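Batch job 17 of 40 flagged for manual review because the log was empty.
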Amino acid sequence: MKIKNTATALAAAISLSVIGSAQATDLEVTHWWTSGGEAAAVKQFADAFNKGGDNWIDGAIAGSGGVARPVIISRILGGEPMGATQLNHGRQAEELVEAGLMLDLTELAEKEGWKDFIRPSKLLESCTLDGKIYCAPVNIHSWQWMWTSLDAFKKAGVDAPKDWNEFVAAADKLRAADIIPLAIGGQAWQSNGMFSVMTVGLGGTDLWKAVNVEKNMDVVRGPAFAKVWQAFSEARELADPNNSIQNWNDATSQVITAKAGAQIMGDWAQGEFSVAGQTAGVEYDCLPGLGIAPVLDTAGDAFYFPKNDDAEVTAAQLRMASMMLSKEVQVAFNLAKGSLPVRADVDLEAANGCMKKGLEILNDAGNILPSGDQTFNADTTGQLEDLATEFWSDKSITAEDAQARYADIIESAE
């Protein structure tokens, strides 16, 4: 695309975005939100966009982000871009931005004062390259949660755990009641995410930072990290040995139906409990940081807008970005999604008990960690996921061997 044409289209788009939609514009939106809770959340975006006079063309891609991202990236690189696409804020779109394929949102962000209300600031920094903003972060998702079925523990005749150690101690009674202690799906990202949560919860935030941010090889190969790997090894015994579940939400369903005692999963699981009509503190409970280290990592979703030469489409893209960060839509979307809003100035009186726990944690900057998407590139993340899922499914791999392989990956990470 010629620079002159791009500048002309963007200028026209900004003008149209200021005066509103001159005419309805179709915009295809790709994402991987297909579970019950996710579908309820994405509907909030679609309804708001359509209400503004445009037309949301849903381009949901079945499966996890690991399935969807290659499809999304391939289309953009192949010259068949969608109007907007979900990705995780972090480094996933770095190469696309560097290639000049994503719409620059800086002028819109400055006009609306995104820097003044998006928190934590690292979310917007993750959307920024060379001083320009290329995505709109829409939520804060954190992996740092364990979800427990209160009904399952009642059935087993044991008190619901307050932390990971109490959960492990109750495992035998759960099994005796024909309840799987720990639910997990078979996809690689799930076991890797669970390992990260255990690193924070059992090893502490300083250990996690030393491994994932500082990449301190003495720590990565050291005894404190070895204890986390040993705990992760022992956790394999808590899962169903005949597990055939792949999707995360199917594992969450086991907790919802009291077939499993707990699941380590991000706060997006909360949307599934909501769709099932369950209430936090009644049928289920939530333990941030495994009940030991109440922290949040700032993972989450953002929307990117591939460049095009049509000024009307560009204007619609800017309207969509603005809509997604509006107060009303931030509240509606995140209440349905189970995530926390990126705006610090919205009323979340309707938030349930687990969301309020998250908001309280978020209020202290010392409790916030970057996500893996912000510390590692896609290649390193893929290697770590492959190792975690291989270790989880093959009990012949020792904790010592896995730690050594993990260290080799970190040592060569960019």
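Reviewer: the log was empty due to a logging misconfiguration, but the result itself is present. The chain has a mean pLDDT of 91. Unflagging and moving on to job 18.
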